[in-house]
């Protein structure tokens, strides 16, 4: 269990420091991941930015993810097709989600350009993973930016999710991999929603 996201970030920071990574770039998945990443970036004295993807829910159940989309509009799926879901629906949702991503990135960064991961070791940080689909979309998006390495750093995730992501990564830091997993929030004493104002302040502090 973690007390809160800051506590989780400090736990991750200890493991990252032991790796002695030279000049890493910390990229957080908003919103909760930004609070975790702040602790890591502070401990390393490194830069901090965000990477944002969006899931596409099934038309009959918005919480059931059938795909995820990145800032370029490219789709990521765990499987090729879903019976009863037209490809036209997924493409239409991808266009909508992409616009939302770009608007949100501009809002949270307050107009600042994204930090370039080219040739650098990237630490991709979130406050935890469930299925890992949006994280995979983020990883694939970052690969197009040609970093030297991508290391996933999350406080908690199911073992099978990490196994599904492993082949796309150069390393994984995850102290807690419970066998019984219902939701990320169950592994925190305090898991309150992170507000946009806090995310914007953290990013501005590292600008």
TrEMBL record:
UniProt keyword annotations, A-Z: Glycosyltransferase, Transferase
UniProt domain Phosphoribosyltransferase: residue ranges: 8-160
One Pfam family, short name: Pribosyltran
Keyword Glycosyltransferase found: yes
Keyword Transferase in record: yes
A GO MF term: glycosyltransferase activity
Top-level division of the source organism's lineage: Bacteria
Protein name: Phosphoribosyltransferase
Organism: Candidatus Fermentithermobacillus carboniphilus
């Amino acid at each position: 269990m973690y007390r809160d996201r800051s506590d989780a970030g400090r736990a991750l920071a200890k493991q990252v420091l032991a790796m002695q990574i030279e000049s890493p770039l910390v990229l957080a998945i908003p919103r909760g991941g930004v609070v975790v990443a702040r602790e890591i970036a502070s401990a390393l004295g490194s830069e901090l930015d965000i990477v944002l993807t969006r899931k596409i829910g099934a038309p009959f159940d918005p919480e059931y993810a059938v795909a995820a989309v990145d800032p370029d509009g490219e789709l990521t799926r765990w499987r090729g097709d879903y019976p009863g879901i037209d490809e036209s629906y997924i493409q239409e949702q991808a266009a909508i989600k992409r616009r939302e991503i770009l608007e949100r990135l501009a809002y949270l960064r307050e107009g600042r350009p994204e930090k370039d991961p080219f040739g650098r070791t990237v630490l991709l940080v979130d406050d935890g993973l469930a299925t890992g689909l949006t994280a995979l979309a983020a990883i694939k998006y970052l690969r197009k930016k040609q970093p030297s390495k991508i290391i996933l750093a999350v406080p908690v995730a199911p073992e099978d999710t990490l196994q599904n992501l492993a082949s796309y990564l150069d390393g994984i830091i995850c102290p807690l991999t419970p066998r019984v997993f219902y939701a990320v929030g169950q592994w925190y004493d305090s898991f309150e929603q992170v507000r946009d104002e806090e995310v914007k302040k953290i990013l501005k502090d590292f600008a």
